[in-house]
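Supplementary Methods S3. Complex input for the magnesium ion-bound model.
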Amino acid sequence: MPTTPPSLAPPAAPPAARRPASAGPAGASVAQKALHKLGLVRDIDLALHLPLRYEDETRITPLASARDGQTVQIEATVTASDVQLRPRRQLVVQVDDGSATCELRFFSFYPSHQKTLAVGARLRIRGEVKGGFWGRQMLHPAFRQAGGELPAALTPVYPTTAGLPQPYLRRAVVSALARADLSDTLPPGAEPPVASFYGKNGLQRLCSLREALTFLHHPTPDVALSTLEDHSHPAWQRLKAEELLAQQLSQHQSRRERDRLRAPVLRPQPAQGTAPPLHEQLLAVLPFGLTAAQRRVGEEIAADLARPVPMHRLLQGDVGSGKTVVSALAACVAMDAGWQCALMAPTEILAEQHFAKMIGWLEPLLAARGRKVAWLVGGQKKKERTAMLALVESGEAALVVGTHAVIQEQVRFKNLALAIIDEQHRFGVAQRLELRRKLAEHGMEPHMLMMSATPIPRTLAMSYYADLDVSVIDELPPGRTPIVTKLIADSRKDEVIERIGTQVAAGRQVYWVCPLIEESEALDLSNATATHQDLSEALQGDEAHGRAPVMVGLLHSRMPTAEKKAVMALFTSGQMGVLVSTTVIEVGVDVPNASLMVIEHAERFGLSQLHQLRGRVGRGAAASACVLLYATNDSGRVGETAKERLRAMAETNDGFEIARRDLEIRGPGEFLGARQSGDALLRFADLATDTHLLEWARALAPQMLDRHPDLAAKHVARWLGGKSDYLKA
Ligand code: ADP
Ligand code: MG
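Predicted complex, serialized as structure tokens:
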């Protein structure tokens, strides 16, 4: 409820985007700043700034029929007006509308308010009625002189910010709506699958963008409010369809731009004398044969590499499905033809973990050809770094491995042909943009292969990732035993520790994951440290029963890299029985002997994240298990939704199914990472419910780019403004 009486609000000039902010009165320039802060710069931005809810000022309600708690508008005469000092200073006004009386109370007021609220004045008042028969009250109602026409439409209430009063924003929207070019950008005959609705003249028809916006800003009072709240109203549907179309157009556009670029044509080389080609040598040293799925995606990638346009492919495959080898084979083809490859992971420890095996296989093969592997990571010593940079620049390094340090300023590739990015969704938008810019520096664009173990649900693949080609490894290497997942209340932690003891005694290894507490790294650390101590004590051995002490290690994100590496080495070599860690081991760690994964406070994790963690076990032949410890509240129960979510983990090992449920429960943030944080790029559409609109937009976008390029450009500019870059990252 606005406390500023409408009639007393300062008469602010309507904001004109083209006018400098200083042109208006002081209040207006504050408001202008606030508008900019909300991203409301162009007329179209204001036109697309939709109400949060509405107030009904279209009718006058007799006081006698107002229910307790109802917000109503009345017209009444002031019968008394006093300033009371107890219990605190306040203005108390009695009004009577002929049907009943009501007391208005104001704890902050100005002399001008008192003047308007003088005895005898007839006022239009709007507020929430409290109390009933024995005395009605309104606290800080809005008021102004009675009379004047009642509005025909509901009054919009907009999302706003400090310094931007509702009345100012309302006026700004009204004038922007009048000024903005809202002419339809949809090509003739391309109506979205949106139900028709009754327009002002009572005729049932499809609405144009202008009609949809006019209606949503100022709906007629007969509208079913629920259809505005759940966005199912045809006017909402129309907007969502347009928004999705803008996104699809932008994705298709960026794909077409990419298709105009040139990339090196990479084909497997013939044997050099007696030496077989590099990829064949790699296949020969692998201690296993490829799965059918690995061979299939390998061929998809090879076909891309053999084309003169840059590949932009996402290689998706569940944890442990063997993506690294597939990418290594692609790298071999490029390196064999004399080009360079870059291999990137989001963190140093992941880079090391992900690629250690592969580099172990490749390094000797490359060395035999006089070529090297260079490492580029953040905290490198200056001397080492300089040496590495020289290797990269001269082209002596065929393979450049590391974090995003690989693509920083000073790095000059001699001839980069292929960039492989592991766990691509963990790179932020800014980093991905930077990467593409960096890679585009030379006339030739390199091919890009991105890898992710987080399966992208179909609707996301169709929208945010529409300009990517996707290859899926849908089969795990043979000989893996399915992981059994159990939900256990944390009150039974002792039993779990018992079990750890037996596992380790049987020669197995165990992970214990403590949750990352985002707000407090310190708390996070102390939690992991305490758990580490508890487990060390519980597993310190028992000579009487012939039990040897178990080495329990600790790994957390704040540790210096060297220390992390030392801990990992002890665990990988099997000397360390139990590894307590925060989620730094989330992806990529490969210790086949580990067969038990315990996740504390599992309810704090997203499902896809749990799935990744669970994938750390079940990599060898031993039967593996994952224990999800959940915290119970005082009454001994975990929240029902939390439990429901966790149950999904016990029910399925299928990463796609889990991702689908995650999307339902948590929205796309989980998948999009940094892209999603801050500005939600889809403001109106909801991928979980608007699939039919998405399908419509997806089919229309390429046609529109072909046949109506001007409309397409106008549509994208209108909806995305400067944001379209981000959609391409
Ligand atoms: P991810 O897809 O999670 O990155 P990795 O590439 O790390 O999986 O592979 C997981 C493990 O499986 C590694 O130890 C790898 O050497 C092994 N591996 C990969 N392909 C096969 C295969 N076809 N047969 C057996 N083991 C394989
Ligand atoms: Mg991997």
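Confidence is low (pLDDT under 50) at residues 1-24, 672-680. The first strand starts at residue 53 and ends at 55.
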